[in-house]
Amino acid sequence: MEHDKHIFWLSSYLKSGNTWFRIFLANLLHSSNEALELNQVDSIIHDEITTSRLWVDRACGFNTALLTENELDSIKPRVYGWHGREQQKVSYHKTHQAYIYTDNNEPLVPSEGCLGAIHFVRNPLDVAVSLANHCLFSLDDAINMMGDETHVLRHFFVHQPLLSWSMHVKSWWEAKDLDVLLLRYEDMVLDTHASFTKATQFLGLDVTQSMIEKAISHASFNKLKAFEIQHGFIEKPPRVKSFFRKGMIGDWKKELSHEQVQRIIKDHGEMMQVFGYL
User: Residue 136: inside a domain, yes or no?
Assistant: First the structure.
Protein backbone atom coordinates (compact mmCIF):
# COMPACT_ATOMS: atom_id res chain seq x y z
CA MET A 1 0.00 0.00 0.00
CA GLU A 2 1.45 3.36 -1.01
CA HIS A 3 2.77 5.30 1.97
CA ASP A 4 1.21 8.59 0.79
CA LYS A 5 -2.29 7.27 0.23
CA HIS A 6 -4.35 6.61 3.30
CA ILE A 7 -7.99 7.57 2.64
CA PHE A 8 -10.85 5.41 1.46
CA TRP A 9 -14.03 7.37 0.75
CA LEU A 10 -17.46 5.90 1.57
CA SER A 11 -19.83 7.91 -0.59
CA SER A 12 -23.57 7.87 -1.15
CA TYR A 13 -26.70 9.86 -1.65
CA LEU A 14 -28.65 10.15 1.60
CA LYS A 15 -30.30 7.02 3.05
CA SER A 16 -28.50 4.54 0.81
CA GLY A 17 -26.69 2.20 3.22
CA ASN A 18 -23.57 4.21 4.01
CA THR A 19 -24.11 4.28 7.77
CA TRP A 20 -24.93 0.56 7.90
CA PHE A 21 -21.69 -0.29 6.11
CA ARG A 22 -19.65 2.03 8.34
CA ILE A 23 -21.03 0.27 11.41
CA PHE A 24 -20.17 -3.11 9.90
CA LEU A 25 -16.67 -1.88 9.03
CA ALA A 26 -16.07 -0.46 12.52
CA ASN A 27 -17.11 -3.76 14.09
CA LEU A 28 -14.85 -5.64 11.67
CA LEU A 29 -11.84 -3.46 12.52
CA HIS A 30 -12.66 -3.52 16.24
CA SER A 31 -12.76 -7.34 16.12
CA SER A 32 -14.56 -7.99 19.39
CA ASN A 33 -17.02 -10.64 20.48
CA GLU A 34 -19.25 -7.79 21.65
CA ALA A 35 -20.99 -5.39 19.28
CA LEU A 36 -19.41 -1.96 19.19
CA GLU A 37 -21.44 0.89 20.66
CA LEU A 38 -22.92 2.90 17.78
CA ASN A 39 -21.54 6.19 18.97
CA GLN A 40 -17.97 4.84 18.88
CA VAL A 41 -18.05 4.06 15.17
CA ASP A 42 -16.31 7.25 13.95
CA SER A 43 -13.42 6.83 16.39
CA ILE A 44 -12.72 3.31 15.10
CA ILE A 45 -12.66 4.19 11.40
CA HIS A 46 -11.14 7.67 11.96
CA ASP A 47 -14.06 9.43 10.26
CA GLU A 48 -14.02 13.14 11.04
CA ILE A 49 -13.04 14.93 7.91
CA THR A 50 -15.77 15.90 5.45
CA THR A 51 -18.28 17.57 7.76
CA SER A 52 -16.03 18.77 10.58
CA ARG A 53 -15.51 22.53 10.53
CA LEU A 54 -12.98 22.27 13.37
CA TRP A 55 -10.91 19.74 11.43
CA VAL A 56 -10.91 21.83 8.25
CA ASP A 57 -10.03 24.95 10.25
CA ARG A 58 -7.08 23.15 11.87
CA ALA A 59 -5.88 21.92 8.49
CA CYS A 60 -6.12 25.40 6.94
CA GLY A 61 -4.93 27.40 9.95
CA PHE A 62 -7.79 29.91 9.86
CA ASN A 63 -11.54 30.21 10.33
CA THR A 64 -12.98 28.80 7.09
CA ALA A 65 -16.46 30.04 8.06
CA LEU A 66 -15.24 33.36 6.62
CA LEU A 67 -15.09 31.80 3.14
CA THR A 68 -17.90 31.52 0.63
CA GLU A 69 -19.03 28.03 -0.31
CA ASN A 70 -17.21 28.28 -3.66
CA GLU A 71 -14.02 29.46 -1.95
CA LEU A 72 -14.20 26.60 0.54
CA ASP A 73 -14.83 24.09 -2.25
CA SER A 74 -11.77 25.39 -4.09
CA ILE A 75 -9.46 24.44 -1.19
CA LYS A 76 -11.12 21.14 -0.23
CA PRO A 77 -9.06 19.06 -2.71
CA ARG A 78 -5.80 20.27 -1.18
CA VAL A 79 -7.10 19.84 2.37
CA TYR A 80 -8.17 16.26 1.66
CA GLY A 81 -4.94 15.54 -0.23
CA TRP A 82 -2.86 16.85 2.66
CA HIS A 83 -4.86 14.74 5.10
CA GLY A 84 -4.25 11.63 3.01
CA ARG A 85 -0.51 12.26 2.98
CA GLU A 86 -0.31 12.95 6.70
CA GLN A 87 -2.32 9.92 7.85
CA GLN A 88 -0.23 7.16 9.39
CA LYS A 89 -3.15 4.70 9.22
CA VAL A 90 -5.82 4.05 6.66
CA SER A 91 -8.97 6.06 7.41
CA TYR A 92 -12.47 5.71 6.01
CA HIS A 93 -14.47 8.86 5.41
CA LYS A 94 -18.18 9.15 4.76
CA THR A 95 -19.29 11.78 2.27
CA HIS A 96 -22.53 12.82 0.62
CA GLN A 97 -20.72 15.13 -1.79
CA ALA A 98 -21.26 14.46 -5.46
CA TYR A 99 -18.08 13.79 -7.44
CA ILE A 100 -17.87 17.24 -8.98
CA TYR A 101 -15.15 19.66 -9.99
CA THR A 102 -14.17 23.00 -8.52
CA ASP A 103 -13.95 26.26 -10.45
CA ASN A 104 -10.26 25.37 -10.93
CA ASN A 105 -11.28 22.12 -12.65
CA GLU A 106 -10.07 19.98 -9.74
CA PRO A 107 -12.19 17.07 -8.48
CA LEU A 108 -13.68 17.97 -5.10
CA VAL A 109 -12.59 14.51 -3.91
CA PRO A 110 -8.99 14.30 -5.13
CA SER A 111 -7.05 11.21 -6.16
CA GLU A 112 -4.11 12.54 -4.15
CA GLY A 113 -3.93 10.71 -0.85
CA CYS A 114 -6.82 8.47 -1.89
CA LEU A 115 -6.86 4.68 -2.08
CA GLY A 116 -10.32 4.50 -3.64
CA ALA A 117 -14.02 4.87 -2.92
CA ILE A 118 -17.04 2.68 -2.29
CA HIS A 119 -20.23 4.26 -3.58
CA PHE A 120 -23.54 2.97 -2.22
CA VAL A 121 -26.57 3.11 -4.53
CA ARG A 122 -30.21 2.52 -3.56
CA ASN A 123 -33.44 2.47 -5.56
CA PRO A 124 -34.62 6.11 -5.59
CA LEU A 125 -38.19 4.95 -5.00
CA ASP A 126 -37.13 3.61 -1.58
CA VAL A 127 -34.77 6.54 -1.02
CA ALA A 128 -37.71 8.94 -1.32
CA VAL A 129 -39.65 7.18 1.44
CA SER A 130 -36.65 6.96 3.76
CA LEU A 131 -35.58 10.54 3.02
CA ALA A 132 -39.02 11.91 3.84
CA ASN A 133 -38.88 10.22 7.25
CA HIS A 134 -35.29 11.30 7.91
CA CYS A 135 -35.84 14.96 7.02
CA LEU A 136 -39.43 15.21 8.30
CA PHE A 137 -40.55 16.03 4.75
CA SER A 138 -43.68 15.14 2.90
CA LEU A 139 -43.09 12.53 0.20
CA ASP A 140 -43.61 15.21 -2.44
CA ASP A 141 -40.97 17.43 -0.83
CA ALA A 142 -38.53 14.51 -0.70
CA ILE A 143 -39.14 13.82 -4.41
CA ASN A 144 -38.60 17.51 -5.18
CA MET A 145 -35.30 17.48 -3.28
CA MET A 146 -34.14 14.37 -5.13
CA GLY A 147 -34.83 16.12 -8.44
CA ASP A 148 -33.03 19.35 -7.48
CA GLU A 149 -29.90 19.53 -9.63
CA THR A 150 -28.39 22.30 -7.49
CA HIS A 151 -29.13 20.92 -4.01
CA VAL A 152 -26.49 21.50 -1.33
CA LEU A 153 -26.58 19.95 2.14
CA ARG A 154 -26.15 22.78 4.60
CA HIS A 155 -27.19 21.14 7.86
CA PHE A 156 -23.62 19.86 8.34
CA PHE A 157 -20.86 22.08 9.71
CA VAL A 158 -19.27 22.04 6.25
CA HIS A 159 -21.65 22.16 3.29
CA GLN A 160 -21.77 19.24 0.84
CA PRO A 161 -22.90 19.66 -2.80
CA LEU A 162 -25.43 16.84 -3.25
CA LEU A 163 -27.15 17.65 -6.59
CA SER A 164 -30.05 15.49 -7.77
CA TRP A 165 -30.15 11.74 -7.13
CA SER A 166 -29.35 11.00 -10.79
CA MET A 167 -26.53 13.53 -11.04
CA HIS A 168 -25.06 12.35 -7.74
CA VAL A 169 -25.03 8.66 -8.68
CA LYS A 170 -23.81 9.34 -12.20
CA SER A 171 -20.97 11.54 -10.94
CA TRP A 172 -19.48 8.69 -8.92
CA TRP A 173 -20.29 6.06 -11.56
CA GLU A 174 -18.33 8.05 -14.14
CA ALA A 175 -15.51 9.20 -11.82
CA LYS A 176 -12.33 8.96 -13.88
CA ASP A 177 -9.66 9.72 -11.32
CA LEU A 178 -10.64 7.26 -8.58
CA ASP A 179 -10.88 3.51 -8.22
CA VAL A 180 -14.59 3.16 -7.34
CA LEU A 181 -16.55 0.09 -6.22
CA LEU A 182 -20.32 0.50 -6.61
CA LEU A 183 -22.50 -1.45 -4.19
CA ARG A 184 -26.28 -1.61 -4.51
CA TYR A 185 -28.17 -1.44 -1.22
CA GLU A 186 -30.48 -4.17 -2.47
CA ASP A 187 -27.58 -6.58 -2.93
CA MET A 188 -26.30 -5.68 0.53
CA VAL A 189 -29.67 -6.71 1.97
CA LEU A 190 -30.29 -9.81 -0.16
CA ASP A 191 -26.75 -11.23 0.04
CA THR A 192 -25.04 -9.35 2.82
CA HIS A 193 -22.11 -11.72 3.15
CA ALA A 194 -21.19 -11.64 -0.55
CA SER A 195 -21.57 -7.85 -0.80
CA PHE A 196 -19.56 -7.09 2.33
CA THR A 197 -16.90 -9.63 1.40
CA LYS A 198 -16.50 -7.88 -1.96
CA ALA A 199 -16.15 -4.58 -0.11
CA THR A 200 -13.51 -5.90 2.32
CA GLN A 201 -11.51 -7.25 -0.62
CA PHE A 202 -11.71 -3.86 -2.34
CA LEU A 203 -10.48 -2.22 0.88
CA GLY A 204 -7.57 -4.66 1.02
CA LEU A 205 -8.47 -5.94 4.49
CA ASP A 206 -6.87 -9.14 5.71
CA VAL A 207 -9.89 -10.69 7.40
CA THR A 208 -11.42 -14.15 7.64
CA GLN A 209 -14.93 -15.21 6.69
CA SER A 210 -15.77 -15.76 10.36
CA MET A 211 -14.67 -12.20 11.17
CA ILE A 212 -16.94 -10.90 8.40
CA GLU A 213 -19.86 -12.98 9.66
CA LYS A 214 -19.38 -11.71 13.21
CA ALA A 215 -19.24 -8.08 12.09
CA ILE A 216 -22.38 -8.58 9.98
CA SER A 217 -24.14 -9.99 13.03
CA HIS A 218 -23.02 -7.04 15.19
CA ALA A 219 -24.40 -4.66 12.53
CA SER A 220 -27.74 -6.41 12.03
CA PHE A 221 -30.67 -4.04 11.65
CA ASN A 222 -32.48 -5.42 14.71
CA LYS A 223 -29.42 -4.87 16.91
CA LEU A 224 -28.89 -1.35 15.60
CA LYS A 225 -32.52 -0.42 16.17
CA ALA A 226 -32.47 -1.90 19.68
CA PHE A 227 -29.28 -0.02 20.55
CA GLU A 228 -30.71 3.25 19.26
CA ILE A 229 -33.86 2.81 21.36
CA GLN A 230 -31.83 2.10 24.49
CA HIS A 231 -28.86 4.45 24.12
CA GLY A 232 -29.62 6.88 21.31
CA PHE A 233 -27.59 7.57 18.17
CA ILE A 234 -25.70 10.80 17.63
CA GLU A 235 -26.40 10.81 13.88
CA LYS A 236 -30.18 10.89 14.37
CA PRO A 237 -31.70 14.29 13.53
CA PRO A 238 -33.17 15.87 16.71
CA ARG A 239 -36.90 15.64 15.94
CA VAL A 240 -36.87 12.35 14.02
CA LYS A 241 -38.32 9.37 15.87
CA SER A 242 -35.54 6.98 14.83
CA PHE A 243 -32.57 6.85 12.48
CA PHE A 244 -33.01 3.14 11.78
CA ARG A 245 -36.54 3.01 10.43
CA LYS A 246 -37.20 -0.22 8.48
CA GLY A 247 -34.23 -0.90 6.21
CA MET A 248 -36.56 -2.64 3.77
CA ILE A 249 -36.46 -3.19 0.04
CA GLY A 250 -39.65 -2.22 -1.78
CA ASP A 251 -41.31 -0.22 0.99
CA TRP A 252 -42.16 2.35 -1.70
CA LYS A 253 -44.89 0.02 -3.01
CA LYS A 254 -46.95 0.73 0.10
CA GLU A 255 -46.00 4.37 0.56
CA LEU A 256 -45.90 6.05 -2.86
CA SER A 257 -48.84 6.92 -5.06
CA HIS A 258 -48.80 6.02 -8.76
CA GLU A 259 -48.25 9.68 -9.61
CA GLN A 260 -45.28 9.92 -7.22
CA VAL A 261 -43.72 6.79 -8.70
CA GLN A 262 -44.05 8.23 -12.19
CA ARG A 263 -42.46 11.52 -11.11
CA ILE A 264 -39.41 9.68 -9.78
CA ILE A 265 -39.12 7.57 -12.92
CA LYS A 266 -39.45 10.70 -15.07
CA ASP A 267 -36.66 12.40 -13.12
CA HIS A 268 -34.32 9.43 -12.77
CA GLY A 269 -35.34 6.75 -15.24
CA GLU A 270 -32.05 6.78 -17.14
CA MET A 271 -29.92 6.02 -14.08
CA MET A 272 -32.54 3.66 -12.66
CA GLN A 273 -32.17 1.66 -15.86
CA VAL A 274 -28.37 1.56 -15.44
CA PHE A 275 -28.64 0.04 -11.96
CA GLY A 276 -31.51 -2.36 -12.70
CA TYR A 277 -34.30 -0.48 -10.93
CA LEU A 278 -36.68 -0.49 -13.91
Answer: no
HSE at residue 210, side-chain half, CA atoms within 13 A, is 2
Instruction: Say what the pLDDT of residue 199 is.
Output: 98
Q: Count Cβ atoms below 10 Å from residue 112 Cβ, excluding itself.
A: 18
- Any idea what DSSP says for residue 88? S
For the chain, how many structural domains are there in total?
1
Q: Which of 144, 160, 179 is nearest to 268 (CA)?
A: 144
Distance, first Cα to last Cα, the chain: 39
Q: What CATH number does residue 45 fall under? A: 3.40.50.300
* pLDDT digits 0-9 by tens, 143-200: 999 999 999 988 667 788 999 999 999 999 999 889 999 999 999 999 999 999 999 9
From the centroid of its chain, how far is CA 193?
19
CB-based contact 13:31 (threshold 8 Å): no
pTM for this predicted structure:
0.88
Residue 85 lies in a domain: yes
Judge whether 155 lies within some domain.
yes
Question: Residue 272 domain-assigned?
Answer: no
| DSSP 8-state code for residue 5 | -
Using CA atoms, how far apart are residues 77 and 58, in angstroms rounded to an integer? 15
- Residue from 123, 121, 125 nearest 184 by CA: 121
pLDDT band at 116 (very low <50, low <70, confident <90, very high): very high
Query: 15: left (phi > 0), else alpha (psi -120 to 50), else beta?
Result: left
Structural domain of residue 106, as residue ranges?
Answer: 7-122+149-234
Q: How far apart are CA 94 and CA 167, in angstroms?
A: 18
